[in-house]
Write a structure and sequence with these properties.
- This protein is of the alpha/beta class and about 210 residues long.
- The chain is built from 11 helices and 9 strands.
- It has helices at about 1-10, 30-35, 55, 65-75, 80, 100-115, 130-145, 155-160, 180-185, 190-195, 200-205; strands at about 20, 25, 40-45, 50, 90, 120-125, 150-155, 165-170, 175-180.
- The strands form 4 sheets. It has a 3-stranded parallel β-sheet with strand order 3-6-7.
- Strand 6 (about 120-125), helix 7 and strand 7 (about 150-155) form a beta-alpha-beta unit.
- The protein is globular and about 55 Å long.
- The relative contact order is 0.11.
Length: about 210
């Protein structure tokens, strides 16, 4: 179902019925290049290119050094830059293998921050991160992406618990769509059951 949502939003295949609107604009009427450039996506596996830190953040060379450094610090990457005397020109090996997975994902987040897209998709983006890095990513999202619509696809409930709305899918059908606090007050809801399955202590933390 995750793949179906991404396919529909990016119009990798046209939907068979209904429509998707962003800011009251029917996405099917928007030029594909415009549509796709107006959204940013961070998948579970970070997308890193061989080159430099600069080219990974700004492949089209459209931003100033000050802008690049600003997003790096906002995305908690200041120590990474300061640790390498080459700064923005620090080498990035193919697939970013000379950086930890957490650092790669934060770099991808910084790249998304530079793209003034109205929609950000997080497709299990923090699934492979430790809890501390996951919490750090969530703080960055709250502080610097609050003006965007964020679709967070995740199995880790602490990743989505502060969302404005929770959507649960059962057998390919939308089962419930409401505020997390409303769902947690309903013992019959799927989301309530999922949270309960994490154990009493974690349920109370989520609540």
């Amino acid at each position: 179902y995750t793949a179906s949502l991404i396919v529909a939003l990016y119009r990798l295949a046209e939907i068979a019925g209904g429509k998707i609107e962003v800011d009251s604009i029917d996405c099917s009427s928007v030029n594909l290049n415009k549509l796709r450039s107006s959204m940013a996506i961070i998948p579970q596996e970070p997308v890193m290119f061989g080159g430099t830190l600069r080219t990974n953040l700004d492949p089209c060379n459209q931003r100033t050094d000050e802008e690049l450094m600003d997003v790096l610090y906002k995305c908690l990457l200041g120590p990474v830059v300061e640790a390498n005397e080459d700064g923005l020109d620090a080498e990035v090996e193919l697939l970013g293998v000379n950086y930890s997975l957490g650092t790669q994902q934060l770099i991808c987040l910084a790249r998304a921050m530079l793209n003034p897209s109205r929609v950000l998709l997080l497709d299990e983006a923090t699934a492979a991160l430790d809890s501390d890095t996951n919490a750090a990513v969530n703080e960055v999202l709250k502080a610097h992406f609050s003006d965007r619509t964020i679709f967070t696809i995740a199995h880790r409930l602490d990743t989505i618990i502060e969302s404005d709305r929770i959507l649960t899918v059962s057998s390919g059908v939308v089962a419930e769509f409401d505020r997390p606090d409303v769902l947690l007050e309903n013992p019959e809801s799927i989301f309530y059951e999922l949270c309960m399955n994490t154990g009493k202590a974690q349920f109370e933390a989520l609540a």
